[in-house]
Amino acid sequence: MNYVVIDLEWNQPFDWKNTGNPDLCFEIIEIGAVLLNEERRQIREFSRIIKPQVYKRINSITKGIVNISKEELENGEPFDEVMKEFLAWCGGDYIFCTWGSGDLVELQRNMKYYGMKNLANGPFPYLDVQKLYGLEFEGKKSARALDHAVEALGIEQDVPFHRALSDAYYTGRILSEIQNEELLTRYSYDTYHIPKNRSAELHLTFPGYQKYISRGFDDKTAAMQDREVLSSRCIVCGKKIRKCVRNFSPGGKYYLNVAHCEEDGFMKSKIRLKKTDTGKVYVVKTQKMISPDEMAEIAGRRAHIMEVKRIKESLLNRSLKKDKK
User: Fold this and answer.
1) What CATH number did the domain enclosing 76 receive?
2) What is the model's pLDDT at position 28?
3) How large a percentage of the chain has pLDDT more than 90?
4) pTM, whole model, 2 decimals?
5) What secondary structure letter does DSSP report for 90?
């Protein structure tokens, strides 16, 4: 299997309210990629400028980062033609690799805008090299900038940053520096297109954790009432287990709970709620085994949040009673 390391540059409107297109927030103006073989050695490269059709003036933010001239853009090629050429260049057996998770979303959003066939019918795997860099060299997931990682690894900076091909090149160089082969199986999953129905939902197993990606729901309430979203099965033995720390939300976008298996210990579930471009709500649930100390810490967080909520409700009720008098 080969590795297609891709990077994009895109433009945006000057004034979101008056000139922004809700169907295309970011218009791709450059695609750069390098192809690495199974040994992660670069064997060829791809670089094309795309002539903008939606946002024809370069936004000052884009201009300050990306050194693309007006003349280059005017001589660019149509997006759909470049994309067809790019997919043919990729070949048959490959996996996409990116620095972070944004590029593949915007790539597919642009493809949809131009009426092109989907890259996949649902979620598909890719390698987030930014995440792999953190796991390999810092022992945890991180969100380091590309230039920071290049400098930290002592990679020669022989081409300037912030052009699609050069950033793809540096991302490929970092990927080739990863020695832990197991990390190359730590796939991320692009969810621009979510599972179409229950039978297409994904149940994924990785070293030390499991991930579930749901179909779409009409709203948050429907998602959080689904039996699969709420279920707890031990990721070690597969048995149904009971929650010892019920669902609570430390933030607005996810929920936590802890269940206990008598044989294998405590299991944490993190339930993230996300929205598609069409307004559907879907769930990404990650589960892993945790220590008793971690369980106690999560239980303490829940107790604190519930107590704060109780106090606020009590104060609100008192205020309402005073207003009635």
Assistant:
1) 3.30.420.10
2) 96
3) 81
4) 0.89
5) H
**Paired tokens of 74:** 């005017």
Kindly tell me if the per-residue pLDDT of 64 is higher than 70.
no
Token pair belonging to 296:
């106690």
Same structural domain, 206 and 291: yes
Q: Are residues 183 and 202 in the same domain?
A: no
Statement to judge: residues 167 and 150 lie in one domain: yes
- Per-residue pLDDT of 197-249, as tens digits, reads 999 999 999 989 999 999 999 999 999 999 999 999 999 999 999 999 999 99
- Counted domains in the chain: 2
Partners of residue 204 on adjacent β-strands = 211
pLDDT at 316: 81
Which residues make Cβ contacts (< 8 Å) with residue 16, sequence separation at least 6?
none
Let me know: does 110 contact 25? Beta carbons within 8 Å: no
pLDDT tens digit sequence for 272-304: 999 999 999 999 999 999 999 999 999 999 999
Q: By C-alpha distance, which of 45, 51, 85 is closest to 68?
A: 51
Helix (H) or strand (E) run with residue 83 in it: helix 79-90
Q: Supply the mean pLDDT for the chain.
A: 93
**Residues in contact with 37: Cβ distance below 8 Å, sequence separation at least 6, in sequence order:** 2, 3, 43
Domain limits for position 6: 2-188
The residue with tokens 């936590």 is: 256
pLDDT for 324? 64
Residue 210 to residue 207: CA distance in whole angstroms: 8
Q: Are strands 124-128 and 254-261 parallel, antiparallel or unpaired?
A: unpaired
Residues 181 and 219 in one domain: no
Place of tokens 């945890």: 140
Q: Which amino acid is at 202?
A: L
